[in-house]
Write a structure and sequence with these properties.
By secondary structure, the protein is an alpha/beta fold. The protein has a single domain, classed as NAD(P)-binding Rossmann-like Domain (Rossmann fold). Helices cover about 35% and strands about 20% of the residues. The protein is built from 5 helices and 9 strands; from the N terminus they run βαββαβαβαββαββ. The protein has helices at about 15-25, 60-65, 90-120, 140-160, 195-210; strands at about 5-10, 30-35, 50, 75, 120-125, 165-170, 185, 220, 230. Strands 3-2-1-4-5-6-8 form a 7-stranded parallel beta sheet, with helices on both faces. Strands 7-9 form a two-stranded antiparallel ribbon. Helix 3 (about 90-120) links the parallel strand 4 (about 75) and strand 5. Helix 1 crosses helix 5 and helix 2 (about 60-65) packs parallel to helix 3 (about 90-120). The longest helix has 29 residues, at about 90-120. It starts with 6 loop residues before the first strand and ends with a strand. Bound molecules: NADP nicotinamide-adenine-dinucleotide phosphate (NAP). The site of NADP nicotinamide-adenine-dinucleotide phosphate (NAP) has 28 residues, from helix 1. Keywords: Oxidoreductase.
Length: about 230
């Protein structure tokens, strides 16, 4: 294990990509704070956990101020999928997805960008999706949030290039996580149809390990085969 005295804050750290990334960053010597609604199923791994619902935007700025979580690296990962035609979503469901998958990221950035700029360095990793690259049937709301993250990442990268702040976007295809638990479809069984959360975490650590003058601006990950099943 190497010690590097760096800190990371991960949203959506209670499962899947976020939890796998937390474990790998801890193993690399980072101190890691995590935000999610429920950490009760997470074994003790040395992460500093904070339970908060990121869709509660009115309370988010004061939560971030009070928690004062250290971050040299900010990994904006929290999100979920819900698929269907727009007319199948209630107004509240549309708001919740946009607030969780997109607007909460803006609030975290508004809190941490001044800190990064004052300190003179920082790394921001946004977890997008293949849905940030290509719209698809039944994906209007989810894809819109993820496309928006890509525009955010590209603009932020330009804004931050003179501040020693690196901005990376990671776009996975189907990942073997809790993401599909509430959905009526999932990747076909077999590891050729899914990416392991640990592989996404490895890609994130790879981007962070580049020399500071190098930004891996975007990574697209796919399983070697693509096929989905109805549950
Ligand atoms: N799985 C895939 O196929 C796939 C593909 C491309 C992109 N992604 C993206 O990858 C990210 C992570 O997903 P995953 O695959 O790792 O799924 P996951 O295992 O379901 O993890 C989602 C994480 O987000 C947190 N979260 C969800 N809503 C939240 C809220 N309102 N407030 C706080 N935390 C919240 C969850 O924690 P709690 O439930 O405890 O709050 C959990 O820690 C998401 O942004 C997802 O869109 C996933």
């Amino acid at each position: 294990m190497s010690q590097n005295n760096k800190s990371a804050l991960i949203t959506g750290a209670s499962s899947g990509i976020g939890l796998a990334t937390a474990k790998q960053l801890l193993a690399a010597g980072y101190s890691v704070s995590g935000i999610a609604r429920d950490f009760s199923d997470v074994e003790t791994i040395g992460m500093d956990t904070h339970s908060f619902d990121l869709s509660k935007l009115d309370a988010l700025p004061s939560f971030l101020k009070q928690a004062n979580l250290p971050a040299d690296v900010l990994i904006l990962n929290a999100g979920y999928g819900q698929f269907g035609g727009i007319e199948q979503f209630s107004h509240a469901q549309i708001r919740k997805m946009v607030d969780t998958n997109l607007v909460s990221h803006f609030y975290l950035l508004k809190h941490y960008l001044p800190i990064f700029k004052q300190r003179g360095h920082g790394d921001i990793v946004l977890i997008g999706s293949e849905s940030a690259l290509q719209g698809a049937r039944a994906g209007a709301v989810y894809c819109a949030t993820k496309f928006a993250l890509r525009g955010l990442a590209q603009s932020l990268r330009a804004d931050c290039s003179t501040s020693n702040i690196r901005v990376m976007l990671v776009n996975p295809g189907p990942v073997d996580s809790d993401f599909f638990d509430q959905l009526d479809f999932a990747p076909q069984l077999g590891n050729e149809f899914v990416i392991e959360p640990e592989s996404v975490a490895q890609a994130i650590l790879h981007t962070l390990a580049q020399p500071r003058n190098v930004v891996v601006d975007e990574i697209n990950l796919q399983p070697i085969k693509r096929s989905f099943r109805k549950k």
